[in-house]
Design goal:
The complex is a heterodimer of chains A (478) and B (480). Chain A has 478 residues and is α+β, with helices and mostly antiparallel strands. Chain A has three domains: 161 residues, FAD/NAD(P)-binding domain; 153 residues, D-Amino Acid Oxidase, subunit A, domain 2 (D-Amino Acid Oxidase, Chain A, domain 2, 2-Layer Sandwich); 72 residues, no CATH class. Chain A has twelve helices and 23 strands. In chain A, the strands form five sheets. In chain A, strands 1, 2, 9, 10, 11, 12, 13, 20 and 21 form a nine-stranded mixed β-sheet that branches. In chain A, strands 14, 16, 17, 18 and 19 form a five-stranded antiparallel β-sheet that branches. Chain B has ten helices and 31 strands. Helix content of chain B is 22%, strand content 26%. Chain B is of the alpha/beta class. Chain B has a five-stranded parallel β-sheet with strand order 7-4-3-11-23, covered by helices on one side. Chain B is globular, with a radius of gyration of 23 Å. Classes of the chains: A alpha+beta (478), B alpha/beta (480). Chains A and B meet through α7, β19, α9 and α12 of A and α1, α5, β17 and α8 of B.
């Protein structure tokens, strides 16, 4: 089999966790090959989550997950602006809907303290309604978690990936690992040989960040210890016209198995309800179900009755990489140069930068030598909306800044930013062009274009723009 | 019929607050003051602009698309037009309407997106001198909107606004259809745009489609799909019968032998990457059936394109999301009128155009009455004379909605609509009855009422009504 790449470190998986690891390896000047079985960065479990920026206040104390979520949260405070990732700490209100749940609130406060999160505050019922005036009747009290926030699950992996690529990481898409034997390298030292559908990649060190496939990749590398039980989460999205109904992330009291269904705004200015939690055995079962949608609709109306008047604009399902264990499956086989990052069930978006830092430490313990961290080039946004006007850069997707079509300076700089193609989300031809022409991570399909620009993500669901956007994609340019 | 609360300005992220902030931070955005701004360049907007221009108003029409004409401009089949000219194709008809508006002197602008209404602080700026393009009644601007396009950001502060934003088909997720999210789930309009305007998007249309819906547009979709080399496996409707006219059904599905599966629900869409099939289940049955297909077209079930109406705080009808209008086609926001399929989703292009012309008459009267009275500037003076929410018209099951859904009190603006359009949700035999406080004002002959088909009742004259009485109700009487 032909050799596709040869590197010091191979990172398997281009979800948000793999992207953060690749980005940190680039920052440390490590020669890195980055492998992804799918077509794009951030297109698996990463794209279909609740888009919450977790503080880790409710994590199981003492776990690696608790530690890395907290660390990831902290790192992102500094990195989000440099990465131009929409991230907002609007806070969460955890609501107890009966007396029994209200009794659990003290325990939740104590758990937050144990986790090193000290900002939580007990709310009585009146305070809950003062924070969330549109909440349905029956709240017995709650907990305010001021640091909980919202993240853009589309931009974060892409921005991390762009920085990794700008820092010299080589990304290989459609390169799923099929076999992973050890072999002797030309220098006489042992190394990994990862056979993929596109050729072999040799590497001294392998990081397994393969998400739902992490248990399978773990076995290919000769390890056992965990299996993945995909946990399906169905979610319902309401239109931006309903965004004003909610101010915070509205959390339920969690159970032993799941954090439960939340109602939350998104950084794109919509409302999200979910996720359900269904244990499955099929890692491709990303279908929504009638029962799931009915449960989500019921929950939405119970938590925010005014949502009964609103139509959902999207329903989707993601699979969390749950295991039989109650913590991340993050371990190193030092003598083999192998680090496993498995079972990152539902908190990967928040913890990815904590995980990446931890993995760098593990790799160093395995013997990887690397430079001191260096500054990576910032992610540049297109046009004068960002700072640079660098061509082929992504637009900012958050609703806290004007879209390019709304910005007089952007339109004056390039009329194509005033040429709106997706009317619901106000995406201009200029942005679509930038996403298609991006030299680092160009959009290759409709879903990729949607995650980079929000085109087609609005209430009409491509009624107006679908044909035109598809035609642009087919041409590869606007 | 209940009212949807207006959208809160504080959370207005799509057009108003953030956009206005951007405009302020970037310095001056020019303001222009046409007499009338018509928003939407479909049949209703074009006909309205033409009529107003003929009446001497400085009228500007803004359409967000690159091509004028609205839905007809993307609909290749024949049957458009009024009277003897009914044989036109959609694009021919659209071209005719555009030419008519241009000749009349309306200023027609494409790729011009109305982002939202300037907030209260911005509305105060409307008193300033304009930056050109002022119309004769421009000093009495009632509202200010934010606009963008390739030539830049602008504000328009007209004396009257006509919303003619049309409607769209309710998409898959709003219908709560579960399953996978593969490529190949489309609406009719997307298929039509591939056929008429964006052939590059043809990959979205496969070889074998299942169509959800059995109303006029659903059968039109059979035809359009066939023109793109895609056969139709079946039309699916949960209603007990199709809802189109027999000749249209025959000419599209009939001649191709396409089955219409009535009283059947679409219960799932399957496929990874691309649609592989759907699951259907007869109403009341427990057993489902799979139909293999690579395309699903979700048709009809029209909803008003109401974003601007909602952002402007207009009262909307809960069933359609359409802005409430009275028989002068006035919305609940002073100075703002609405016409066409945004108030009755969806009628034919001819009905929409007639509505646009009717709105033009009301707007013209509004402008001149203001001038005659030497009216005060926008604000309280206007608001007190703008009493559109008076005398609501409501429907009772199985009727779904009626437009106009208010009569409005007589004032300086004449009644321009003498019939109301309505829909039934269920197939039913009976008479349509218009009444006020159980006093019958009008009764139709006995007929079969079919969902998704246009139904009409005359609007009662105000002199036949008790102005202090209750609401006017339209219902179905199954007796007699």
């Amino acid at each position: 089999m032909s050799t596709l790449d040869s590197a010091e470190v191979a990172v398997v998986g281009a979800g948000v966790v793999g992207a953060a690891i690749a980005r940190d390896l680039a920052a440390h000047g490590v020669d890195t090959a980055w492998l992804e079985a799918g077509e794009d960065v951030g297109a698996g479990t990463t794209k279909a989550n609740t888009a919450i920026w977790h503080t880790g206040f409710d994590a199981k104390p003492g776990t690696l997950e608790a530690q890395l979520v907290a660390r990831g949260y902290e790192r992102l405070i500094d990195l989000a602006p440099a990465l131009e990732v929409p991230a907002r700490a609007d806070g969460a209100v955890l609501v107890a809907w009966d007396a029994e749940q209200a009794d659990a609130l003290e325990g939740i406060l104590a758990q937050a303290e144990t986790n090193g999160y000290h900002d939580c505050r007990r709310l009585d019922a009146a305070e809950v309604y003062a924070h969330e005036p549109r909440l349905g009747a029956g709240a017995h009290g709650g907990v305010l978690v001021p640091g909980e926030g919202l993240l853009c699950p589309f931009t974060l992996p892409l921005a991390l990936g762009r920085q990794a690529l700008a820092g010299g990481v080589r990304l290989h898409l459609r390169a799923g690992v099929e076999h992973a034997p050890r072999e002797q390298g030309p220098d006489g030292r042992a190394r990994h040989r990862l056979h993929t559908s596109r050729g072999a990649v040799t590497a001294r060190y392998v990081v397994n960040a393969a998400g739902l496939a992490s248990a399978a990749v773990n076995r290919l590398l000769g390890h056992e210890g965990f299996t993945i039980t995909p946990r399906r989460g169905q979610l319902l999205v309401f239109d931006g016209l309903a965004r004003h109904l909610v101010r915070h992330v509205i959390l339920p009291v969690p159970t032993a198995r799941t954090k439960g269904m939340l109602v939350a705004p998104t950084v794109h200015g919509k409302l999200l309800v979910g996720p359900t939690a269904e244990d499955l055995d099929d890692t491709t079962a990303t279908a929504t179900t009638a029962e799931g949608i009915a449960a989500l609709t019921r929950w939405a109306r119970a938590v925010v009755p005014a949502l009964a008047e609103e139509e959902p604009i999207a329903a989707y399902a993601g699979l969390r990489a749950a295991t039989e264990h109650r913590d991340y499956q993050l371990f190193a086989a030092a003598d083999e140069g192998y680090v496993c990052v498995g079972g990152i069930r539902s908190t990967g978006l928040s913890s990815c930068l904590g995980i990446a830092e931890h993995v760098l430490g593990q790799l160093a313990a395995c013997g990887l030598e690397h430079d001191a961290p260096r500054e990576l080039p910032p992610v540049r946004l297109l046009g004068p909306v960002g700072a640079s006007g660098q061509p082929g850069a992504p637009p900012y997707l958050g609703d806290d800044r004007p879209r390019p079509c709304q910005d007089p300076a952007a339109v004056a700089s390039d009329p194509s930013y005033g040429r709106v193609v997706c009317h619901c989300e106000r995406v201009s031809a200029g942005e679509l062009h930038a996403a298609l022409a991006d030299p680092l991570l160009p959009a290759r399909d409709g879903d990729g274009l949607r995650r980079r620009t929000r085109a087609g993500q609005g209430r009409c669901q491509r009624f107006h723009c679908g044909a035109r956007v598809d035609a642009l994609l087919a041409e590869g340019r606007p | 019929m209940s009212a949807v609360p207006p959208h809160a300005a504080a959370a207005d992220t799509g057009g108003g607050a953030v956009a206005a902030a951007a405009a302020r931070s970037a310095g001056s955005v020019p303001t222009r003051r046409p007499d009338v701004l018509v928003i939407g360049g479909g049949p209703a907007g074009l006909a309205c602009a033409a009529e107003l221009a003929r009446a001497g108003a400085a009228v500007e029409l803004a359409d967000r698309d690159a091509t004028l004409g609205g839905v007809p401009a993307t609909t290749a089949h024949r049957g458009f037009g009024e009277g003897l000219r009914r044989g036109a194709t959609g694009p021919q008809h659209a071209h005719r309407l555009v030419t008519e508006a241009e000749r009349a002197g309306a200023s027609l602008r494409t790729e011009t997106s109305v982002l939202g209404w300037a907030d209260a602080g911005d509305a105060g700026d409307a008193g300033d001198a304009g930056d050109g393009g002022d119309g004769a009644w421009a000093e009495r601007a009632t509202t200010t909107v934010e606009v963008t396009g390739p030539t830049g950001r602008e504000r328009l502060a007209p004396a009257a606004v006509v919303l003619a934003t049309g409607c769209r088909e309710r998409p898959r997720h709003a219908r709560l259809i579960p399953g996978d999210r593969p490529a190949g789930v489309l609406t009719t309009n997307q298929v039509q745009q591939v056929a008429t305007r964006h052939p590059g998007g043809a990959a979205a249309v496969g070889r074998r489609a299942v169509i959800l819906g059995a109303e006029h547009v659903s059968f039109s979709a059979v035809h359009t799909l066939a023109s793109l080399g895609c056969e139709t496996a079946a039309l699916i409707t949960d209603l007990p019968r199709h809802q189109t006219l027999a000749p249209l059904r025959l000419a599209t599905a009939g001649v191709r032998g396409v089955p219409v599966r009535t009283s059947t629900r679409l219960t799932g869409i399957h496929g990874h990457g691309r649609v592989e099939g759907v699951t259907v289940r007869p109403v009341g049955a427990t057993r489902s059936e799979e139909i293999a297909c690579d395309t699903v077209v979700v048709t009809g079930d029209w909803v008003a394109e109401h974003e601007l109406a909602r952002r402007g705080g207009l009262v909307l009808a809960a069933s359609t999301g359409a802005p409430r209008v009275d028989r002068a086609l006035r919305t609940t926001r002073p100075g703002v009128f609405a016409a066409g399929n945004v108030i009755h989703p969806a009628e034919t292009a001819a009905v929409a155009a007639a509505g646009g012309r009717a709105a033009a008459r009301a707007v013209a009267a509004f402008l001149t009455s203001e001038a005659r009275e030497g009216a005060d500037a926008a604000g309280a003076g206007l608001a007190t004379r703008w009493r559109t929410a008076e005398l609501p018209v409501t429907t009772a099951w199985p009727l779904q909605w009626v437009a106009p859904d208010a009569l409005g009190l007589a004032g300086e603006v004449p009644s321009v609509v003498d019939t109301a359009v309505l829909r039934t949700a269920a197939v039913v035999e009976g008479r349509l009855v218009v009444s006020q406080d159980r006093r019958v004002l009008w009764r139709s002959r006995r007929q079969r009422l079919v969902p998704n088909r246009s139904l009409r009742v005359p609007l009662p004259d105000l002199e036949h009504l008790d102005p202090t009485g209750g609401r006017v109700e339209v219902r179905v009487s199954r007796r007699g």
